[in-house]
Amino acid sequence: MSGCNGLSRVDQRRMLKLVTPEEAFRRLQQTIRITKLDFEAVSIENSCGRVLAESVVSSTNIPFINRSAVDGYAVKARDTKNVSAKKPLKLKIEGELFPASALGEFSLLPGQTVYLGCGAPVPEGSDAVIRVEETRRHGEELEVCRPLEKDKNVIFAGEDVKRGSIVLSEGHILRPQDIGLLAALRIRRVKVIRKPRVAVISIGDELTGLERDEPSKTINNYALIISAMASEFGALPKIIGIASDVLSEIVEKIEKALTIAEIVVTIGGCSVGVKDFVPDAVNTIGKPGVIAHGIKISPGKVTGLGVVKGKPIVMLPGHIVSSVAGFHLFVAPLIRLHSGSNILGTPQIRAKVSQDVKAKRGMQAFLRVHLKKIKNEFVAVPISGGSSSLSTLIKANGFTVLNEGAVVKKGDKLSVTLFNEKELLQL
Amino acid sequence: MSGCNGLSRVDQRRMLKLVTPEEAFRRLQQTIRITKLDFEAVSIENSCGRVLAESVVSSTNIPFINRSAVDGYAVKARDTKNVSAKKPLKLKIEGELFPASALGEFSLLPGQTVYLGCGAPVPEGSDAVIRVEETRRHGEELEVCRPLEKDKNVIFAGEDVKRGSIVLSEGHILRPQDIGLLAALRIRRVKVIRKPRVAVISIGDELTGLERDEPSKTINNYALIISAMASEFGALPKIIGIASDVLSEIVEKIEKALTIAEIVVTIGGCSVGVKDFVPDAVNTIGKPGVIAHGIKISPGKVTGLGVVKGKPIVMLPGHIVSSVAGFHLFVAPLIRLHSGSNILGTPQIRAKVSQDVKAKRGMQAFLRVHLKKIKNEFVAVPISGGSSSLSTLIKANGFTVLNEGAVVKKGDKLSVTLFNEKELLQL
User: Fold this and answer.
1) Is A122 exposed, middle or buried (0-12, 13-18, 19+ CB in 10 A)?
2) Other CB atoms within 10 Å distance of the CB of residue B37
3) Across the strands, what pairs with B168?
């Protein structure tokens, strides 16, 4: 059907030269410039979920001094060697220590003890703590009813964290307990990788913003989806707005985006139709321009990649499922590259597939799946539907990519990537 | 050892009456008053991760009209029945339609066609779309080279979402694609459950705030940990500050907390020592006061629960591991009760345990574990250490609870709860 596939048609702007997603991303990695990751200092209270830009070394021992692990009394272990309820060790209670007490307040002589509130310093002259309920008390006299080994109920200085040790490593994603540790080390602000900015441009005469809402037009909702996804992957999304199907408008919006973001994403206008100007726009703006257009994956085939001024431009298709595929294949890994973490937002789970699935010859398949748990086993149910069907993405909670021409049988195991880590909660 | 366990001691304020975590939480559920969950309207852009307060019914069909799924030409399928490259169907091109075009712009007669950009309305008189690359074009004459079945490459009105259907259900946690759907339905604001407020009070003479930082004192870092955890579970934490080990100060802080939060959490001051005033404070404030003190779990034994003015007060122990155990046992489920979702923040994964573990007789065990993936299999490595060891919580990423006296052998499967869904990313 040669005549049906000519290059110079009035109704087709260009031909796609298909490459694999891996090859396309390799080109991108080789062409973009990430000199060094930008960082910023944030207060530890606002650091949860952020990526550490440098390792943290402990400047102190935690705890700072030996402390009691229980409410009890300070004893010298060897003095309790042969004691029992019938033959107790008798000690004189000299006073009380509490967590707020200073270490030097007491120095015990043989026959002396002090009450230790849980967390109190263990005073000189003692090396163990006997629990309150294992003693008898008569006024200022204490009877210890059982033998105690040395160090019993003592938390040692540096036992939890040793001075000079690396407590958190560069690239670690901060969690509540990490913030608690930073506070204990009296660190108030912490260096984290700056969130990469992702600019999102929507292309199409038919689009209108939610705020304007012309009834005859289509709401620009895909930009909301892609930017919310970028946000969940740890980026800072910036919705640039809508460009009409006019080359100059698209050029202008992309140029603006390049000045304020590390990653530029366009939605729509990158197919082969007469109004698909995005690849032309990218080539107009600068070198090398488009580095790949046409990906061996379905849906998502018309996705394109460009680089201008060292920055990546991901041209996502106008169908939402294709667009989401392109996001996971290219935008998510770009965010990770710019975030100093190769793990953000991508929980993967092995699951049995609930029915036969396959990919077309020469094409990988981006398969929407609904991952669910049946009797403690993960099952992936493929969700079929057109590439413009938003409702299939509502039903799905993740995806899997099949190799070119792959045939996978019901019951075979697949690696499912959840759309993001929160999807795990709705399983 | 009767004399070692009397009730009226000067060095022990009270005896614990141990109950199981389940019994304690049952009492709490029976005693607190949650009349009805509070909701608020938020803009859809800010609704990601929030819990829907009402089901959403589609007010419209998506798409609104039949649209082309490809760049191509409108045809009547039955006219293509016997066509081939050698014997093509010839049609006159009457014009072009694009996604922004109105439906009524063309009405095709036999022998006519229009160019349809991807997403363009499919005009009257046609019922299928042939791809550009499957046609030949000579000026205004189109040659269709192959037969087409009816509906081919047509996206039907309502195919994605039918008017009147429930698209998102009450209790659903909103995701990016859901926000896109709401926008498509021209919904700008959405009713979500208000985040429950969790007030956190730290008790102890030894504590100082990070902002004051008296060098001889201990930084109040546990409040940061518990409030960051509350935040990750979908609550709005409010750090009330530090109360000294003085009954009146604790009473005052709890009373303040009850006025601004749905859930009150205290940290420390709830053991049996001479300075442990929190249970007294709770009983002082109102009825019923303390409803459980002493939980059959280790660590976490001295955790207490109270209810005043229908609101829950969780008394967490001063050791951080016990405190985190108490959070997961009581605070997290309380947040869920107040959030309208029983799933927030609690991904559970079955894993093989890497060594023998056991619980004491008559006590459940809160076991810190480091869940990791070895050859696509989840393995839970128990992390041992004292209940005051923050570093063990840095090493751990989840926990499991063993039944009273349970003996679990290496290789047996356990259900591990990750500290929160983000932990999955660091596996």
Assistant:
1) buried
2) 15
3) B56
pLDDT over threshold 50, residue A57: yes
Pairing state between β A89-97 and A72-75: unpaired
**Pick from B309, B258, B304: which is nearest to B288 by CA?**
B309
pLDDT of A329 higher than 70 = yes
What's the average model confidence in pLDDT over A129-134? 92
Q: Please state, in angstroms and rounded to a whole number, the distance separating the CA atoms of residues B117 and B354.
A: 59
- Chain A interface includes B378 (CB < 8 A): no
Query: By the 8 A CB rule, do B150 and B77 touch?
Result: yes
- For residue A318, which of A260, A251, A381, A268 has the smallest C-alpha distance? A268
Question: Min CA distance, A343 vs chain B (Å)?
Answer: 6
Assign B174 a pLDDT band (cuts: 50, 70, 90): very high
DSSP code at position A251: H
Instruction: Name the DSSP letter for residue A52.
Output: B
Please say if the pLDDT value at position B5 is more than 60. no
Chain A, window 107-166: residues with a beta carbon less than 8 angstroms from a chain B beta carbon: 115, 117-119, 132-137, 143, 145-146, 155, 159-161
Which residues are A42's β-sheet partners?
Answer: A190
| Residue B115: both structure tokens together | 């160019």
Does the distance separating the beta carbons of B273 and A161 come in below 8 Å?
no
State the smallest CA–CA distance between residue A202 and chain B in angstroms.
Answer: 14
Residue A347, preceding bond cis, omega within 30 degrees? no
Radius of gyration from C-alpha coordinates of chain B: 32
What is the rounded CA–CA span in Å between residue A176 and residue A183?
Answer: 11
- Please state the ipTM of this predicted complex: 0.89
Q: Kindly determine whether residue A159 and residue B386, on different chains, have CB atoms separated by under 8 Å.
A: yes
In this structure, how many other beta carbons lie within 10 angstroms of the beta carbon of residue A86?
6
- The separation between CA B351 and the C-alpha centre of its own chain, rounded to angstroms, equals 22
C-alpha B366: how far from its chain's center? 22
d(CA A67, CA B206): 13
Question: Does the distance separating the beta carbons of A177 and B393 come in below 8 Å?
Answer: yes
From the list A250, A249, A242, the residue with the least C-alpha distance to A212 is A242
Q: How sure is the predictor about A8, in pLDDT bands with cuts at 50, 70 and 90?
A: low
Other Cβ atoms within 10 Å of A10 Cβ, number: 10
Please choose, from the candidates B38, B51, B344, the residue with its C-alpha nearest in 3D space to the C-alpha of residue B192. B51
Supply A14's token pair: 């260009």
Buried b (16+ CB within 10 A) or exposed e, B319-336: bbbbbbbbbbbbbbbbbb
Phi, psi values for residue A181, rounded to 5°: -70, -45
The minimal CB distance from B175 to the residues A146, A173, A419 is found for A419
Distance CA A201, CA B72 (A): 25
CA atoms of B87 and B273, how far apart (whole Å): 97
Domains of chain B: 2-38+195-339 (3.40.980.10), 39-62+160-193 (3.90.105.10), 67-155 (2.170.190.11), 348-426 (2.40.340.10)
